[in-house]
Specification:
With 589 residues, this protein is an alpha+beta fold. It is built from 18 helices and 29 strands. It comes from Lepidothrix coronata (blue-crowned manakin).
Length: 589
């Protein structure tokens, strides 16, 4: 704690906001101390931090609507206390100083001057008085006011670093944006005499890059990042440094997605959309004893660790240069601490929907320079079924089958629906849906109910709220092409006598005739498999598109069977999930 306090004091007493490389800022203004003001409209108080000439730090909270004069009076009182403490001397010393000692102990004059040198009236409210560039006078001391300067609230490096894989730091800042921050990367220096033990010194490895990819030459060395927070007005705050907890390790060599990246080197043109759907295997499932010993016994234990798999995931997803990415089985912590910061660095904005009572959920990412988010319409199937009038007819039918109804309502499955608008052609909008249906092999009837709710909800968004906008419906549907769910989605109807209504036996028969208004096509067709584990392989994942409005430009080939089975099955040291990403380029008709 004391180290942090000393560091904070040093940053307060240091030079004003760090200028950009090559920036000036000389003269008297540059020599001033700093008075840092944090003033946010949504908060009732502002804070003021400065360091008195005697070295004591002051941190004050004042009402934003309070007159400036009261705040200045309080500063004067604080400054007098500081002088008093500093002036505690022997009687003889005070007697020798005489009147000078008395004057030093008195409260200094405190005034605030605007940027143009005019005195700020004492009746002006604090929120309006403390402007950036103003100058605070405390006796003979001068402080330049920095209002809401850029500041880092978090800077973190991943725990696992692999050569050849991008290192994407987590950067959280206040009054700053990562794209305006300054980054400088360092590596440990090897000892001059050779050997394996790294030296103490740091050598600059890269400057200006938010994402750094260490080469094989850096294996065995730790990394350090220095980040200076900045904003769009080229203001810069105090820099922070963070060192990696461990050294760069050797990568796994060839990965299943390397050849796929040859097709996706560039982002699609404005008239096209590259979509990705991918179940990335939640850590909460990968780390169970059952997973290690029964589901994935062929996978090296270290390759099931989330720190390792995140390296592969970030490189794989970044290399697809996608416009829309729909992910399933996304741990909340993985989204917040890893994927969202990493994909943000590659130009993608992320949205997250957690499953009810779970630690994982769905994530949708969209490319910021191609799309803006108009609205979100996420639902939990069980809750929507019971509470939304939209599903009343289906709910009434389901009530006739209490065993099935109970199972449907117990499921935590959710649907993520985002409406996006083209940044270059506002007339072009997309309804992007993302889901992960119930997994059980005998749960075909449950999945039919879930998909009926999903399609009804998507219809409400893409027909009622935004008339006739195209739909892209991605997900892990846990349904093969021969299933009732796939048939219902692609043919628009499901008969009441379909075999999936009795998927779990006659006692759970649930017979309904259902329909939906869309003409949906599986953009990537019906691959032999999208899920390949030791005991099962099959096609469970799809990107369905509105074939009246969209057409397929190209489907990025899946990894070859030899690539998938190099390490027997998935996941593996060269593939982060038990599923395979689907990728296709689409265009408006």
């Amino acid at each position: 704690m004391w180290r942090r306090l000393r560091s904070a004091l040093r940053s307060l007493r240091g030079s004003p906001a760090v200028p950009p490389p090559g920036g000036g800022g000389g003269g008297a203004a540059a020599a001033m101390e700093r008075a840092v003001v944090r003033c946010v409209p949504s908060e009732p108080k502002l804070s003021l931090r400065f360091v008195l000439p005697d070295g004591s730090a002051r941190h004050m909270q004042r009402d934003q609507g309070e007159p400036l004069g009261r705040a200045l009076a309080r500063i004067a009182t604080n400054a007098a206390k500081g002088h008093g403490k500093a002036g505690k001397k022997s009687k003889k010393a005070r007697a020798e100083e005489g009147a000078e000692g008395e004057e030093a102990a008195a409260a200094p004059a405190v005034r605030l001057f605007s940027r143009d040198g005019a005195a700020v009236a004492e009746e002006v409210p604090n929120a309006a008085a403390w402007q950036d560039g103003a100058v605070l006078h405390i006796g003979a001391a001068r402080y330049r006011v920095e209002r809401n300067p850029p500041a880092l609230t978090e800077l973190r490096l991943p725990r696992s670093l692999l050569a050849g894989f991008p290192v994407c730091p987590k950067v959280s800042a206040e009054f700053a944006a990562p794209q305006h921050c300054l980054f400088r990367w360092y590596r440990e220096q090897r000892p001059a005499g050779g050997g394996d033990a790294p030296g103490e010194a740091w050598v600059e490895a890269a400057e200006g890059e938010r994402v750094f990819t260490p080469s094989n030459a850096l294996v065995g060395l730790r990394l350090k990042l220095r980040c200076t927070p900045g904003d769009g007005e080229q203001r810069y705050g105090p820099a922070r440094e963070v060192e990696s907890s461990g050294p760069v390790e050797a990568g796994p060599g060839a990965c299943t997605f390397d050849n796929r990246h040859l097709y996706t080197k560039k982002v699609c043109g404005q008239g096209s959309v590259r979509a990705v759907s991918y179940n990335i295997l939640a850590d909460t499932y990968a780390q169970t004893e059952f997973s290690r010993t029964v589901l994935y016994p062929y996978c090296a234990p270290y390759a099931l660790e989330i720190d390792y798999r995140q390296n592969l995931l970030k490189k794989e997803l970044a290399g697809y240069s996608a416009d829309i990415i729909c992910l399933q089985e996304v741990d909340k912590s993985v989204f917040l601490d890893s994927l969202a910061p990493a994909l943000d660095a590659f130009g993608l904005e992320g949205l997250f929907k957690i499953k009810e009572k779970q630690h994982e959920g769905l994530a949708t990412f969209y490319r910021r320079d191609k799309f803006s988010l108009l609205s979100q319409h996420d639902i939990a199937f069980s809750e929507a079924l019971l509470s939304e009038p939209l599903h009343k007819e289906l709910c009434d039918q389901l009530a006739k089958y209490p065993l099935v109804q109970e199972k449907v309502l117990q499921r935590s499955s959710v649907l993520q629906v985002s409406v996006l608008q083209s940044t270059t052609d506002p007339s072009r909008k997309l309804c992007v849906a993302n889901t992960h249906l119930y997994w059980h092999p005998k749960g075909g009837n449950i999945r039919l109910i879930q998909i009926a709710v999903a399609l009804s909800h998507i219809k409400h968004v893409a027909r009622d709220l935004y008339p006739s906008i195209p739909v892209i419906f991605c997900g892990d549907f846990n349904s093969t092409p021969s299933s009732g769910t796939y048939s219902f989605i692609s043919s628009s109807v499901i008969a009441e006598d379909h075999e999936d209504w009795v998927s779990n036996g006659e006692e759970e028969r649930c017979s309904m005739a259902l329909s939906h208004p869309f003409k949906l096509l599986s953009a990537c067709g019906e691959p032999a498999y999208t899920n390949y584990v030791g005991g099962f392989h099959g096609c469970l994942d799809y990107i369905f598109i509105d074939k009246n409005a969209l057409e397929v430009e190209q489907v990025i080939p899946l990894p070859t069977h030899e690539e998938v089975t190099t390490h027997q099955a998935l996941p593996s040291v060269s593939h982060p999930s038990d599923h395979i990403a689907l990728i296709c380029d689409l265009k408006w008709k």
